[in-house]
Every structure is written in C-alpha cells, then in structure tokens.
Amino acid sequence: MKFDSVSLVVSDWEYGAATAGTSNGPDTLIEVCSNSQLPFFTQLPKVTISQNLDDWDVNTIQLPYLKRGLPLLKHMRKLADSIESIRKDNNNIILLSGDHSNAVGGIAGFCRSINSQRAGVVWIDAHLDLHSPYTSPSGNTHGMALNTALYSDNTKHQERNIDEQCFSLWKEIKSLKNNDCIPAANIVFIGIRSFEVQEEALVLDENIKVIYAHEIHENGIEWAISEAHSHLQNKVDHLYVSFDVDSLDPEISRGTGTPVENGLQKDQAIKLLSHFYHLPQTEVFEITEINPSLDTDNSMSKAVCEILSEVLAT
Fold this sequence. Notes:
Number of helices: 9
Number of strands: 8
Largest sheet: 8 strands, parallel
Shape: globular
Radius of gyration: 18 Å
CATH class: Alpha Beta
Strand order of the largest sheet: 2-1-3-8-7-4-5-6
CATH architecture: 3-Layer(aba) Sandwich
C-alpha cells in the first residue's frame, strides 16, 4: 500500500454484533494514536460513513436469521459507494470500522472497480465469519461478513429454511458488490480458532485456505506468512486485508466483543500486518471490532496503536 495515495474511511456501524460499543472504536483508535505521537490517521484525507438510524428501531431485529438486515443494507450501500468513489481516483483505503459486518460494504466497494476474479482477501480473525442466514446460530451479520464475498450461501449444510423476505434481502446484500464474487481459492484466513461445523464444512467444500492459530504457534508466524503469500501468489492482483482485533490473544484484546484464547501475540501481529500492509497488491486495509465500552483505559486501542507504530515504521 502506497502512503501517498491512501484515504481514511471511518464506518461506525455496530449493529451487526450482539454487543454495542464498537461504533466508538474508530475514533478512539484515532485519538489514542494521536496522543501517542502517531498522528498517522490525522494526516490522511478522511471520509466518515455514520450510522443513521433515525428511520429504524435497532432494538427490533426484524428478521431473526438476518438481524437488522434492512438498516445494514442501507449503511453498507453508502459505505460501498464511498469506497468505490475513492478508488476511482486510484486511492488505496484504510478502513476503520465498528463491527466486522462493515466488511460487507468494504468488500463490495472494493470489488466494484476491479476484476474480482483477480481479487483476494486476507482475513485475520479468531472466527471464520462464513455463516449465512441458512446456517447462522445467532443471526448476527458480523458472523456472515465474508460469506457475502462468495458465490455459495452454504445451503448444502443449511440448518433452516428462510422466508421470502429474508431470501430477497440476503440476495440484495450480497449483490452490493454488483454480483462480482471473489473466488474461494483467493481467500486466506489467518489466526482462526473458533467456528461452527457448517463453516468448517464450507471451508472443506470450497477448499478455502485456513491457517489456524495452533499452526502458527507450532510453526511460527514466518511460516504462516509464507503459506499465505504462496497461496495467493499468481492468483491475486488486488487485496483486501481485514484485521479483527479478536485475532489477538485475550491478554491483549480485552476491549472486543468475542475474545478467544490462544490468539496472536503482538510480535506475531506486527510481522503479519507489516507483510500484508506493505504489499503493492493491498488496496484496502481494515481494522475492526475495537469496543471501548468493554475496555479499561483504552488498552485495546493502545495495543493496536503500538502494533501500528511498528507496522508503519517498517
């Protein structure tokens, strides 16, 4: 990613998750970094996509298997349109987002201006986020974010039938990227250690590359970087990198909604993010799921700021 062509996009949507508070994550990270002598974010052109919920009762989930899907569609359309517009000027993007369902709009805008058959995603996370309304145990869309990039809805392993309203809305959400799906072979997960059997089945069916957290601890982060890089090499010209802070170990990632034991350590995250941030193919770099309301003294944002200070210095 080239610094001289980077724009900052802030999207504070938080209603894809079960726990509120991530809407304050992006601005908290910007403030903490600025106070820590890392004014990086304040130096970039900035666009903010704010959640406008005047027309919606977010306490009413509307559809149990696609919770708050209607306002999500509205917000993600705005986010995708903004990213598409910025990228028309050949600008790369750092996306600071609330919960991980913002990747629905992030990936959609990313896909619109490129040949999506040559696009890839590096998903650094504790979770696979490959559910659809057919399989999700919760109906929370932050657990469905990456499925929206794929052709498959994983109906082969569905747990339920969905009604016509849910079907149509899900189809519309997935079509935000203009139906240009990213090939499953162009996706790499890193740091995974929590998932449901339906997601694992989709991984196996589609032969998606997953680098599990225990493999990183056994073989080293350099091995993981090499595995991911080799898998994407010669397949991908455009890369969307998404860093969910719950990929970090809970001793670091206290301020996030779904922490999972045995995650990445800071030095591992620094090496991993440094590699992908500085690749010329990286065009969107997302940081997501910081929740200051679950934190003490903004320790989550401070940890991310420490990581970024090393990443940007390399």
